[in-house]
């Protein structure tokens, strides 16, 4: 701005007004004009300050805007409303409310233009209490009857999850346009209130207000969000039949629902429509297509859609990784993820979280921990979804220190009170053998949902603490939380761990008699396990035969395991035959039957089963144990001679065996189910992975330190006896988690009471 121009403003304030309001006014010019205004004392000219505030706010120069506001000795409503509106428009909701509070402090009453911006800010912050206070202001001043204010109030209450209040206000609006109708209908749809949403939709038409594309899309997206997938697809089809042309938003909203319904035929039809209408360049539509094909297990089509994209998009990349993982191709997903990362693509928190979840859910726990470390090195901040995806990996391999680090991270970031983070923490600590810490996390949760209650019950059940499990089950109900099928699975599992048949029958029968729930197949599996473990094998078999549906592999597997415990060949053969039909490629079933034969000395039958396995190309899953030492998880395999400390481990184990024999212990060679000499059997027992892991822990930790071991198979009776001795002889607390439960060894005694 030239000196001549500035001189002209000295006599003509309206010239400054005109200039600040023009489209050619730059930020630089505004600052020069601001300096001139301060120099000439025009800062109290309300119109000039309002224009200047608007210009600064629209250019995100909030420091300068604050200076302008501070320089006004006698501000009016327009001075504040300009800044409130700008902050609200730019989603700086906290700043909008602060300026509003300052306005009230000056004794100024808001007008009909201020209230909508303030209610928008309250909605954006989900600040219900503040919104209700502002609502009172509007009512006192009479502006609550203004249609624009009423509409903004309805939106605020909907955003704050007060649908009834929103509907009451909606009913008071005399002139309701399609926007407010659509917003309320969409809100009911997102809640899964199908009947209410449809009724409102019909009422809108009866009132002469015709739905637009936004109305239809709101219902489709809402129904999909609430899990009402069939309704979402129905509304999409109805919209098309009534002559409305679906847009990109319609398609990207309905495709996830189609995927969840696994309706591949309809998905392919919509894909054709996408190509025909030219929506294949819409990033959201392409991402939704990849997601849909992934849910329908169509890997080829999913990949084709992805690789036909002209410009790579992070949303599509995330959908491809998730689709591959969902269909069990976790190695391919990891490879694709690494490829994207290597190409310099800016992977976001969703990308990293999806990959961590994929590894956690598919047995790649070490990779999940490494990805979490890499994620932070890359500067991507984990969120409240990342932590619950990571924690199962920590629990799976008892990586307690990594789990504690994730817990500390969630505390620092302020989302440790999130119910899903809290539930995952309860589960992680329980899986790591720290049930007391699980209970502490549970007690500290400010709010609890059913997932939290089930997590702590599942933890107690895993640790064989039936009394505590039943106490939590009762406490949950006294707190007004109704149990679901998982709750009953937890309490029945706890009963089966402790042989509590009477209590087990009580809870099983109470499902239908007291809670109106039909027992699921997992509940029958728990009862078969319970009956079988206490030796009531015929009763367990009768229960299977009387089931209202076909028993699955879990049920027959429970019976077969019990037959192994009690060496019941006849029923073991019955269960095995059924399992061979259901799971012909599961080597565990063949091994169990082979072990039953071996325990009875039926070596010919053992050879037949093993020949059958060999003919099918099946191999026994090797025993594997994990132990965490100094923040690192170590894996030991049964009979593994390649471990760097194997000589020290065997030497230490031999010394312990000598001490055990001195105290009267004899190796339980009946747990070696091979037709070999007794001496060879003793050597085989020495190579069991849980023993190797415990001794490895003894060698690498200070005396008296507790040890935590995880095993991928059931602990054998000999290892159980050996670890009991070690806990007493070495003065150690040793926790071993097998596929069945936790065993806490201390002073020569196990928490299971030798019942497992």
Automatic annotation (TrEMBL):
Keywords: Repeat. It comes from the Eukaryota. Residues 664-756 form the DYW domain. GO terms for biological process: RNA modification. GO terms for molecular function: RNA binding; zinc ion binding. Gene3D superfamilies: Tetratricopeptide repeat domain. Pfam families: DYW_deaminase (PF14432), E_motif (PF20431), Eplus_motif (PF20430), PPR (PF01535), PPR_2 (PF13041). PPR repeats lie at residues 76-110, 177-211, 212-246, 313-347, 348-382, 449-483. Belongs to the PPR family. PCMP-H subfamily. This is DYW domain-containing protein.
